[in-house]
Design goal:
The complex is a heterodimer of chains A (182) and B (176).
Chain A (H helix, E strand, L loop, with lengths): L1 H10 L3 E11 L5 E12 L3 E8 L3 E6 L2 E6 L4 E6 H5 L4 H4 L10 E6 L2 E6 L6 E8 L5 E8 L4 E10 L18 E4 L2
Chain B lengths: L12 H9 L3 E12 L2 E12 L2 E7 L5 E8 L2 E6 L4 E4 L2 H9 L5 H7 L9 E4 L5 E6 L2 E11 L2 E11 L2 E12 L1
Antiparallel strand pairs in B: 1-2, 1-11, 2-3, 3-4, 4-5, 5-6, 7-8, 8-9, 9-10, 10-11
The chains are: A mainly beta (182), B mainly beta (176).
Amino acid sequence: DARSDLQQKLASFNQFSADFSQQVFDEQGKPMQTGKGTMQLARPDQFRWHTVSPDESLIVSNGKSVWMYDPFVEQVSIAPLEQAIQNTPFLLIAGRDGKRWQDYEVTRQGADFIVASKDPSELISQFSLRFDARNRIERFSVLESGGQRSDFTLKNINTQPKVSNTSFTFTPPKGVMVDDQR
Amino acid sequence: CAYKAEQAPAGSWQAQQNTLSQLHNWQLSAKLGIITPDERGSLSLFWRQNSNDYRMNLTNVVGKRVFDLSRNGQNVQLTDSKGKLHQASNARDLVLELTGWDLPVEQLSYWIKGLPGVGDKVTYDAQQRPGTISAHGWQLQYLGYTQIDGLWLPSRLNLTHNDTQLRLAISQWEFK
């Protein structure tokens, strides 16, 4: 079924890197915020999400904790993984165990897999994922209950990215406030 | 959309002050930093203004809605991050009550264009553009300008009021 197809596609690669471009749309589909950056992911739950424009920000997960660095206000927040990735696409893309999937219905619509939360109160009501011919994620979207949608398009996808021991760690620069929520 | 600057020398601040005050249909994308004694964070802001009506959409870094504030005539409406709708007649009170953030929404609609309000205390920078404004208990500092279609518009702006500091970095302006 759609669920096992999706899990199989996700399991076909354990790590990848890509350039992303992000476009937010309002409920009438009118474009609002945009963003660009680079991402890297290694299962389980290690990822680096570096937004470069229009403003820099960095999210890094070592699989246990997630650093959210915001240079604009000179602060890094650190949160436990499960709390930080709640309601975000990373929850499903970065995970390896199937346990997280029980809370979601998976259906297929053409090239897109639609992953809908079973809990109606959850704000992110739907993710959608689209794979290219070589089973790599080329696009994913986050649809909110109010109709606001955020599309992420991936380019320069590399399924054998160079991984160094600092790829999924973060050391706060001097002078940055640390807000440790763990 | 062409702009006529009356008698003042072309490109000078006085010449464009009139143009700015007539500029009612615009939209911008910005980063809004909010610093209070117990919280620091920044959000991505999309603001569309049509004369007195506006739509301010604030999302977090992953594109998730934080809140959506809109005004249509006298009706001010805020949709919170859970999708719940709240209504009031005053936007600043509504935002303060629901988020704890003090956002001078009505004044920002002209301050963000670099336009002082009537009676605001203003100092000007070397190019005769507003450098600081103080009004309604707020201190504003214009840290950068950018020129678009011949108009000087703020690109970096700090506002402080009591122990709240707001930082705005405007990355895109668009005029209708």
